[in-house]
Specification:
21 helices, globular, single chain, 7-stranded mixed β-sheet, alpha+beta, 5-stranded mixed β-sheet, binds FE2/S2 (inorganic) cluster, 850 residues
Length: 850
């Protein structure tokens, strides 16, 4: 027995266990998070005898006589200070890293009341944040130190929350203090635990599955195979993903499920799965699109290895290239990368005994999950109620089924509540990645430097299952022209099944890959004609009324040129500055259903915002609150943002394609306008029980529409980023100017850009997801995620010509575009230092590759 103190309370552990498990499972205090269980991420940071430590690496046997402080153990004054400071600085996004950050901050400030920014960076070195770019977390810690040092009162937080106001996020307190619920924080009485046995080989025939020994284990609650699944396929768009591989089936990647086991105690799951006997015939995996497209290549899916072919052909690209004064042709290679959201996947399914169940989930769309799970179980959609808890980051990686369908299947079969939680390594090996792409592109201009044409071929490694491979390829193709005006544009794209981990949605959605290729080509082309790359972009940049390479006419609010102007000084400030431009659609577009929905319900004098738009950290709850307050002329203390729930919140589509600020925002504005009209003659009390509904549907033209100027998307965002390196090819500063239309919340918008820039720098300089022969070689600690000390100063310039009259007051998406230009800007900066052309990511021969 081990005795120690936790938050001033005497505790005892009867057995030797990890401190993290003791805190979360025995004491049921869950502010200390489990992001990796391997000492890398810092979400489990606590203070032990005055020193910060990682609870996942400590055991109760080593704590005898010691004192532990967790986020719950902060004094009331400290809690108030950190909630205010993190809210004021805009330091909270998904929140999964936040309690750990606060503990690291406390540990610093307890010993140093006047820290510098450098001290802060050092103090949070062990804490990874995937959302914020660290800037605002550092600001928050410096502000907290000032309030504590000068013994200042904690200011009152404003309830004025109009559009454009600096307003603290609605979820600040629960995320800073760790009281908000993520799925893994929940315990349901009678809950059992499930986990899948994964394939031993990326490609092998499953000859025999023997579950008898596993079933006989005393802690085994159930073992399921493919034969137990009513419909053994899921898939976001194309239903090609096996819930489990049946006997006689062939595995397609290392993350395929073979059996699903449930136990009464989570600790015995691996032991039970170890008793399952599977006989395989190992087959040679297909690990590149080239192999997959070769003659006589084995078919990964019966319909063939080509998932999608995308083609855009406007003008006369070949002729224009032939006639152009200058052309650059290059081949580019971009790698698979992992989203590395801080919260590993977790779901809990609770059956009610009548063919219905509730799913607690953390995803990018509760309605997508409802639809896919209902189809798998062959029940009506209404039988599956999906409720979102807090989402600890997504970045596109939480659009597909990962744990949800397994939890639902096991709960449906056993009649028990079931939790499925991925370890960090399972998360790495199973969920979709950013697609690796190979790109050949020619870009041409005339003797004056005017772009004349671009022609490209993109080959995308789809991995084992379709996921969003088709749409991601399509966006890579539609955006490879970049934010420029020219008419001759030809692109062919191919998305090819392999036995690698599947590719899927990832912040940028194919545009990060194509932007790297085109922007690097443009820098080379400018060099070829002896023109400054900034000027080259200024001449060719899209202006209102001009047509984009895809034919769409740029709207009046288009502000790419203003973005270029905003970074000009920074670009000219250093000989080692690199520049890149970018554009990104807001909304799904291309003629597909694309809607935002919101219902406002007046309950107990408060306006509840009900929408299924998932807040995966970007802050749609705060955006919707500000739009409601602006429109209906009410204060934020009269509002409440509810989490997505298929029973209560209308379907606002997936949080994807940088769409919710515009789509859900406009739906909220429409609903709030109706509320406002009622408020002219009635009070909120008098409106008790009333509901106000808003819906916005974006109307666009399909791909390859015969119209000369199709409307592919309802809005585009634009940006220009400058990366400045030193002579060692280390990034010393980034300046990012982004056309975001009307800013709804300035700090939140900046925070999105800072986080996107850092993710873009990682993509350009350090991140890689390594697979060899279909096997995953990367660990969480080797993904190349940038830490605070590696994060350079990031200067943000918010550009927008909107006048509050447009959709959602003229706001446009910022989630994805912020992450796409940094990689080519890094390549350009490194070129300025050593003159080497880099066409592969992560970039070789920089400070970071040493
Ligand atoms: S959970 Fe302990 S460091 Fe990640
Ligand atoms: S806010 Fe830091 S990981 Fe999301």
């Amino acid at each position: 027995m081990y005795q120690f103190e936790v938050n001033g309370r005497q505790c005892q552990a009867d057995s030797d266990m990890r401190l993290l498990d003791y805190l979360r499972q025995v004491l049921c205090i869950t502010g200390t998070k489990d992001g990796c269980s391997s000492g890398v991420c810092g979400t489990c940071t606590v203070i032990v005898n005055g020193k910060k430590a990682k609870a996942c690496m400590l055991r109760t046997s080593g704590l005898d006589g010691k004192s532990v402080i967790t986020i719950e153990g902060l004094t009331d004054r400290e809690k108030a200070v950190y909630v205010y400071a993190f809210g004021e600085a805009g330091a909270v996004q998904c929140g999964f890293c936040t309690p750990g950050m606060v503990i690291s901050a406390k540990s610093l400030i307890d010993s140093n009341l006047s820290p510098t920014r450098g001290d802060v960076k050092k103090a949070i070195h062990g804490n990874i944040c995937r959302c914020t770019g660290y800037v605002k977390i550092e600001d928050a810690i410096l502000l907290a130190a000032k309030i504590i040092r000068e013994n200042l009162p904690v200011p009152q937080t404003s309830v004025t929350a109009g559009v454009g106001e600096h307003f603290h996020r609605v979820d600040t307190a629960e995320k800073v203090l760790g009281t908000g619920e993520y799925v893994d924080d929940i315990v349901v009485p009678g809950m059992i635990y499930a986990k899948a046995l994964r394939a031993a080989y990326p490609r092998a025939r499953v000859d025999k599955i023997d579950i008898e020994k596993a079933k006989a284990h005393p802690d085994c609650a159930a073992i399921l195979t493919a034969a137990d699944v009513p419909f053994n396929k899921t898939g976001h768009i194309k239903k090609d993903w096996d819930v489990m591989i049946p006997e006689g089936g062939i595995t397609r990647y290392i993350g395929d499920s073979i059996v699903l086991a449930a136990t009464y105690h989570a600790e015995t799951l691996d032991e039970v799965l170890g008793l399952v006997e599977v006989k395989y015939t190992e087959l040679m995996p297909v690990t590149s699109p080239e192999q997959a497209l070769a003659q006589n290549a084995p078919l990964i899916h019966s319909g063939g290895n080509l998932l999608a072919h995308e083609s855009i052909d406007r003008g006369q690209a070949d002729e224009a290239i032939a006639k152009s004064a200058y052309s650059v042709t290059c081949h580019y290679s971009t790698p698979m990368t992992d989203h590395a959201f801080m919260e590993p996947e977790c779901a809990i399914a609770i059956p009610d005994g009548t063919n219905k169940l509730i799913l607690y989930t953390a995803s990018q769309s509760v309605y997508d999950e409802q639809r896919e799970i209902a189809a798998m179980l062959k029940v009506p959609n209404e039988n599956i109620r999906c409720q979102s808890k807090l989402v600890g980051g997504g970045f596109g990686g939480k659009e597909d089924m990962s744990v949800q369908h397994h939890a639902a299947l096991m709960a449906f079969t056993t009649g028990r509540p079931v939790k499925v939680k991925f370890s960090r390594q399972e998360s790495l090996e199973i969920h979709v990645k950013r697609h690796a792409m190979e790109i050949d592109i020619t870009t041409s201009c005339d003797a004056d430097g005017r772009l004349t044409a671009a022609k490209a071929v993109i080959v995308s490694d789809c991995g084992a299952y379709a996921s969003l491979g088709g749409p991601v390829l399509q966006r890579a193709c539609t955006h490879i022209g970049g934010p420029y005006h020219f008419d001759n544009f030809k692109v062919d794209g191919y998305c090819v099944y392999t036995n690698n981990v599947p590719g899927g949605a990832f912040r940028g959605f194919g545009v990060a890959q194509s932007c790297f290729a085109q922007e690097t080509n443009i820098n080379l082309l400018a060099g070829k004609i002896g023109m400054d790359p900034w000027k080259f972009r200024y001449i060719n940049g899209i202006r209102p009324g001009e047509s984009l390479p895809n034919g769409q006419i740029a709207s009046e609010e288009t502000a790419f040129i203003e973005c270029l102007e905003a970074v000009k000084t920074a670009y000219e400030s250093s000989p080692y500055a690199g520049i890149a431009g970018c554009m990104k659609n807001s909304g799904i577009g291309v003629g597909l259903p694309d809607y935002g929905r919101c219902r406002l319900a007046v309950i107990d004098g408060t306006v509840h915002i009900r929408t299924s738009a998932a807040d995966i950290g970007q802050g749609i709850g705060t955006v919707a609150t500000q739009i409601l307050c602006e429109t209906a002329c009410i204060t934020s203390d009269k509002t409440f943002f509810e989490r997505p729930d298929t029973l209560l919140t209308p379907n606002s589509g997936t949080t994807t394609a940088s769409r919710q600020t515009l789509f859900c925002g406009e739906a909220t504005r429409i609903a709030a306008q109706k509320l406002k009209e009622e408020l002219l003659t009635k009070t909120l009390t008098e409106l008790e029980g009333e509901e106000f509904y808003g819906e916005y549907s974006g109307i666009t033209d399909p791909m390859n529409s015969p119209k000369p100027h199709p409307v592919s998307h309802v809005a585009y965002s634009y940006g220009a980023q400058v990366v400045i390196m030193d002579a060692d090819k280390r990034v010393v500063k980034v300046v990012a100017a982004h056309d975001v239309g009307q800013v709804i919340n300035p700090k939140a918008c900046e925070g999105q850009i800072e986080g996107g820039v850092l993710m873009g720098l990682g993509y350009g300089l350090t991140e890689n997801f390594i697979m060899e022969n279909g096997l995953v070689k990367s660990k969480y600690g080797t993904l190349g995620l940038l830490r605070a000390a590696q994060a350079p100063p990031i200067e943000i310039k918010l550009i927008g010509k909107a006048d509050k009259k447009g959709l959602a007051y003229g706001a446009k998406g910022i989630g994805e575009i912020s992450s796409v230009a940094a990689a080519p800007a890094c390549a350009a900066a490194a070129f300025q230092v050593d003159g080497a052309v880099r066409t592969k990511l992560p970039l070789e021969n920089t400070y970071y590759s040493k």
